[in-house]
């Protein structure tokens, strides 16, 4: 199976249901919302799957893309996809492992845009949002977008505030930023 992204570029995905690439209309909507903020940004892709969101960010000029993915097979696909997309002046890194544990290793770094798309039925939402807030991974003017099934509710996490929500069929995007005091 494959996915097409910005510029009609073809990405590889794992066969079957091991990963669930973000729908094209959701991906397009997200990048329309974040239009003008991707060029030169530091991008963090959590539960990266095929890496389509990070690849799209690299295509649109992100300076750095970091992805975290549990599956070693998926990490190999992300690495392959990002390698074919990245320009010489762009950096990328793919980290394999449990997303909450891997976030600890990023402590001290900040990201302008964070995209988080775990399996919808997982119990990762609150621990990951808490870790992002605890380790200060979101840049002061940065935004975090989480993808959820439409039946999920929003999360209250100290240090982060929800600033908008968009519905696309059975998919919801919720956007967070650092709580301004």
Automatic annotation (TrEMBL):
UniProt KW Hydrolase keyword: no
Keyword Transferase set for record: yes
Species per Swiss-Prot/TrEMBL record: Myxacorys almedinensis A
Name used for this protein in its record: 16S rRNA (Guanine(966)-N(2))-methyltransferase RsmD
Assigned EC number: 2.1.1.171
NCBIfam families to which the protein is assigned, alphabetical: 16S rRNA (guanine(966)-N(2))-methyltransferase RsmD (TIGR00095)
Pfam families membership: Cons_hypoth95 (PF03602)
Entry's Gene Ontology molecular function annotations: 16S rRNA (guanine(966)-N(2))-methyltransferase activity; nucleic acid binding
Transmembrane regions: none
Keywords, alphabetical: Methyltransferase, Transferase
Coiled coil feature spans: none
